[in-house]
Design a protein that fits this description.
Blueprint: H1 2-14, H2 21-50, H3 55-82, H4 92-100, E1 105-117, E2 120-129, H5 131-154, E3 158-165, H6 169-177
Parallel strand pairs: 2-3
Antiparallel strand pairs: 1-2
Length: 178
């Protein structure tokens, strides 16, 4: 019964490709139970047919060996979220170059990226723009351009930008001196 129930659970979980750490953790647990159930049945058959009692210990060791690699990967990915490590595939220098290339952008500083949950890279930055760009597009229009750039070019799903006029740069320089 356990083998069938774990097989059904694994089928349901394998159809959900969200990248969620919770689902991956659940799938790892169910996979371990599925393999454990299968190996328990095999060990039982071996013990019944041959009397070799060590089949149970061998099955237990095989279960542990099969589950450890997935557990370490899950631990690594959860540590990246908990420690707010920048996504490994996000090149901040390239992000900065793209943002600076937008019309009216004169500077990008305090650029940071992290992962708030599995599969959701986040980014924040201060972006200095010309007064002409602010007059022409407004802060909302500038924010739309910045968000479109990071979403379309880099897959960043959550970005926070502080838009600053060029004249505000003096304030930034004073703030760094304190």
């Amino acid at each position: 019964m356990g083998l069938v129930a774990n097989g059904v659970s694994m089928t349901v979980l394998s159809r959900s490709e969200t990248g969620s750490l919770n689902l991956r953790g659940a799938a790892t647990e169910v996979l371990g139970d599925l393999i454990g159930s299968a190996l328990t049945v095999v060990a039982g058959v071996v013990i019944w047919a041959t009397g070799w009692q060590q089949a149970d210990a061998v099955a237990s060791l095989l279960i542990a060996v099969m589950i450890l690699p997935r557990s370490f990967l899950l631990l690594r990915d959860s540590a990246s979220v908990l420690l707010e490590i920048a996504p490994h595939d996000l090149d901040l220098a390239e992000v900065e170059r793209h943002l600076r290339a937008l019309p009216g952008v004169t500077d990008v500083h305090d650029l940071h990226a992290w992962t708030i949950t599995s599969g959701i890279p986040s980014l924040s930055a201060h972006v200095t723009v010309t007064d002409q760009a602010l007059d022409e597009h407004g802060v909302g229009g500038i924010l739309d351009q910045l968000c479109a750039c990071t979403t379309e070019d880099f897959g960043v799903r959550h970005a926070t930008f502080q838009v600053e006029p060029v004249s505000h740069r003096e304030h930034e320089d004073l703030g760094e001196a304190h």
